User: Fold these one by one.
Assistant:
Number 1:
Amino acid sequence: MKSFTNTFQVGAGVLLSLSTVVSGSSSSMWLPYSYGDKIFDVLNTVAAVDSTKNLELVTEKTGGDKGTNDKKVKNCKDVIPLEKISGMPRFLRKITGDRKLRPKDKVPEFTLPSIDGKEVALSDVLADNDYVLIDFWATACGPCIAQFPKLKEIHSTYNELGFEIVSVCTDLTDEQWEESSEEHQLPWIDVGDINDDFLGGPTSKAFRLRSIPRSYLVDTNGCILHTHMFPTPLEGFLESEYGEELKTQEQDADPTRSDVTNNEDEVLD
């Protein structure tokens, strides 16, 4: 195991050097996200095997959930940085970065300006709702925009029952964000993590984003239930959670049902 770790460290150092040469800048240490994520998984598995107290992490890192989790999370936890798990050299983190947020992790708290100029704290939104979809998007992201029509339907159906959406725009300028929001007329909470470096805003960094669209369905405690939560599975989840309540609400709102009931009572009399 020791020889494997040493070999991997040497290889990682070479990869870091190559990334610096390709980028032309020693400050740009990022490899493509898919490679970094895989490297992290290997490192964490090695660290877990190398440390008896972290042995239980092996199963999680090698065969754990890839993006979904059933119902509410019982044991929500804050994300533990790599260096605290394995004690690996700091230069390896420059290659991999921190790992992706996953189900059972707790989302980072943030406060961002909304499109109408108000400051919105995620903690306040979570406190007022059962479930919140945090959806990162940008004007130039076609797949992000394509989800809006279906999300509008879902929001209209479930918002009053305890579901909310927080869209986080990652545009490069406020002007881009304002124009796009005006065009798409988002009916939910629309905040901006605007930065002239793509995904360089503090919230995007806190969520460790490397690409969009990216969304997280969280419960009222801020625990991630699902990642990459696209409209169709989101609708299925909410239907399973609110189906009976929604059915009752629709029946109460239908005046013809009360008329039918009254007529039946008259016939029985």
Number 2:
Amino acid sequence: MSIMNQPNDAMQPQRSQEGTLLHVVETLLDKGLVLNADIMVSVAGVELLGIRIRAALASFETAARYGLDFPAGTDRETVAWKEAVEQKDTCPDCGKRSELAQLMNDYCPWCGWQSARSKRIEAGEPAQLDSDDDR
């Protein structure tokens, strides 16, 4: 009985980019996190203290999308606020987020990618209406 020595790439340690701190924070801000906690302190069956905590951690864009309330005095007329509430999507070529209308009708400002719809518009062909255009 002999054992053959062959390189086994499956046994080599590998690190996925999906587990980096940057990816975790980006996902957390993109998807949002809501924490609900009820804390009660009681002695001999008598409740001495009760605390209810509801905390949300999300980007302004995500919070606005889900209708979370913002603190009084939040200035909604700033450029940053308007950028947060405008509809964005991820470019399929470079993976960066840009305004949806610009991606669909023009090009990606980061890498220059063009959608099939923008190519039809550029060629002078009538662009087909999507269900989003009817709104």
